[in-house]
Write a structure and sequence with these properties.
alpha+beta; 19-stranded mixed beta sheet
């Protein structure tokens, strides 16, 4: 199976062209190929498929095999994948996701797409709620960007024990379908900083929908302006909550490498074969 490894400010995925044929067992493939020791290594798997509603369709699977509704960094890379391979000549295209059809405006330099602005749609905000986790009571603002987020304001995201608080919040009974978790700080009215624990993948270097959710949560409380630079461990995104109610996210898209993946070679799933290997 041919694949392409790509990332948007460090949020990395394995991309597969499924416009003609799709691999079997995509959740299992996502788990195997995402493994950073026994697979290619990524935050998940993204399949580019045909669509009867848009130019193309994106299916996104987290590293644990669960299917996600939307991925902001991933969809920018989808645009680059399509344009660089001349699967489209358009610089404005639509991509169907489980969170609806999204419009991308590609930024092209030297005949290659280097980034995109994505219409991420309208955020849906819930009322702040206090969630008891790990012996603490933490206030979160629920935000849906087509996928669920919980945003908490904090002085310094770097000081948060995300390995403890992230999974505890993700699996809290307050969020029955599990949730993506953001701890965000306001550096200035036009600049925010955050760390993200992604549902089904753990801590990632960046999250496009998470940056949009953080902007919506903070701006709705008057804590920042409606257009900010969102700084994440992997880099920065430009995020704007426009007068039409939609949030527009801009950022880069990068190809890391291409390769071939051979199915059925994970020795953890075939321990009898592994035991038969000769000792060197």
């Amino acid at each position: 199976m041919r694949f392409t490894k790509m990332h948007g400010i460090g949020n990395d995925y394995v991309f597969v062209d499924c416009t003609k044929e799709s691999p079997a067992d995509l959740p299992g493939l996502a788990r195997r190929i995402s493994d950073r020791h026994f697979g290619v290594g990524s935050d998940g798997l993204i399949c580019i498929c045909p669509s009867d509603r848009a130019d193309f369709r994106m299916r996104m699977f987290n590293a644990d095999g669960s299917e996600g509704a939307m991925c902001g960094n991933g969809i920018r890379c989808v645009g680059k994948f399509l344009y660089d391979r001349r699967m489209t000549e358009r610089t404005v295209l639509t991509v169907e996701t489980a969170a609806g059809v999204k419009e991308l405006r590609l930024r092209v330099e030297g005949g290659k797409a280097v980034g995109a602005t994505v219409d991420m749609g309208e955020p849906t905000l819930g009322k702040p709620l206090v969630v008891p986790i790990a012996g603490k009571e933490i206030t979160f603002t629920p935000v849906s960007m087509g996928n669920p987020h919980a945003v908490s304001l904090c002085p310094c995201p770097e000081d948060i024990n995300l390995a403890l608080l992230g999974p505890a919040a993700e699996h809290s009974p307050c969020f029955p379908g599990r949730v993506n978790v953001e701890f965000a700080a306001v550096e200035s009215p036009r600049r925010i900083r955050l760390r993200v624990w992604e549902r089904g993948s753990g801590e990632t270097l960046a999250c496009g929908t998470g940056a949009c959710a953080a902007l919506a949560a903070l701006a709705s409380q008057g804590l920042c302006e409606r257009e900010v630079t969102a700084v994440l461990p992997g880099g920065a995104l430009e995020v704007r909550w426009a007068d039409d109610g939609h949030i527009y996210m801009s950022g880069p898209a990068v190809t890391v490498f291409e390769g071939e993946y051979e199915h059925g070679t994970d020795e953890r799933e075939f321990p009898e074969a592994a035991r038969q290997l000769p000792l060197l």
